[in-house]
Amino acid sequence: MKKLGSQFAVAVVCCILGFMLAYQFKLMNKQNKNFSSNNDGTQITAEIDSLNKQKSNLQGKVNDLQEKLKKYETSAANKSEIDKQIYNELNYTRMLTGNVDIKGQGIILTIIPQSGLTGSIQSQPINDKDLVYIINYLNSADAEGISLNDIRITSRTGIRNAGSGIIVNDDEKISPFSKVIIKAVGNKKNLDAALNFPGAIPKFPNCDIKIEQSDNIVINKYDKTYKFNYAKPVGKN
Amino acid sequence: MIAVIGLLLGIIIGVVVDVNIPLEFAPYMSVAIFACLDSVFGALRANLEKNFRADIFISGFFGNAVLAAGLTYLGDKLGVPVYLAAVIVFGGRIFNNFAIIRRLLIGRNKLH
After folding, report:
1. Which of A1, A2, A8, A16 would you mutate first to test chain B, the one with the most B CBs within 10 A?
2. ipTM value of the model?
3. DSSP H or E segment with residue B10
4. How close is the nearest chain A Cα to the Cα of B54, in Å?
């Protein structure tokens, strides 16, 4: 009896071992399959190039269409006073949503990551949270338009870390290892005072921070359209 | 022998059944498998030397596996690759046991 019991125990133990081996092999095979399909570097680079070209072509088309739209609107607005007022309202709203280029006085904040003593930048010096914090500060100092590396910041702009870069507006990537330029249009003295307030700008390790006031800052527009898939206006009409 | 049958049965179950153990445990499983292999080799050698004891085998099997996984986990938390110690030691013991098994088998064959 004792021998049978011990033999049975040995059999169970070997079962467990066999199961673990088979499971591990299956797992490793699955992982290897997942990784080996992403290795054509040159193909991916070529794809990126062609997509970039497509994007700039389409960008040119968008600009042309917007010019045409402007011409139609101005000619329509010249017909009557009411239309002119509506047109002005429209322009004003467009400034708010970030759909037109704006210019005016304001400040330019430049953050330049310095390479450390070893000559290379090790951990990510600029974080998405820090950028959001700065933009929030500028907004509370009454900035009327903000751009981050020439990407317009709107009320629906999201800034988040993604891999080795920061994605702004779901689409454009900026690298936290090269300089980041934040421009804001507003009362330049107020904006400058707000940024120079101690604690306003978060501590960036190893970075050079420059703030300059300027009388002529141009902020480019946000050139994508907003989609409202879920929100509908409340009330009649 | 029952052990081989058990092993085959276990492998078949592992291939057929689709178990979902969370992926974080994968490295621990690898080290535990290594520890179990070492136990099995020790058991084989004990069998050939006629002093196999099932309770020592089983306790060694599970104990080594748990200890190896525990050391790997500790190494993860401390940032030190402690699992290397387990791998080296178990690898060394497997080779040792295998050498002794070889000598025993060849010695037996010579007598026959």
Report:
1. A16
2. 0.76
3. helix B2-16
4. 6
For the record, the structure tokens of A108 come out as 């330019």
Which position has the token pair 């322009």?
A91
Tokens of A162: 């993604």
pLDDT in tens, A49-105: 889 999 889 988 888 888 888 888 888 777 777 788 888 888 888 888 888 888 888
Shortest distance, CA B42 to any CA of chain A (angstroms): 13
User: Which of A2, A12, A14, A21 best tests the B interface by mutation, with the highest count of B CBs <10 A?
Assistant: A14
Q: Kindly state the average pLDDT of the residues A176-201.
A: 82
Name the pTM for this structure. Answer: 0.49
Largest CA distance in chain B: 54
Q: What percent of chain B has pLDDT over 70?
A: 95
The one-letter amino acid at B13 = I
- For A24, other C-beta atoms within 10 Å of its C-beta total 16
Angle at B72 between CA B68 and CA B73, to 5 degrees: 115
What's the start-to-end Cα distance of chain A, in Å?
87
pLDDT tens track for A107-118:
888 888 776 555
Q: Give the phi and the psi of residue B110 in degrees, each rounded to 5.
A: -65, -40
Provide the shortest C-alpha distance from residue B45 to chain A (in Å): 14
A190, A196, A202, A203: CA torsion to nearest 10: 160
- C-beta separation of A152 from A222 below 8 A: yes
Residue in the structure block whose two tokens are 């690298």: A175
A24 vs B contacts (CB less than 8 Å): 26, 29-30, 33
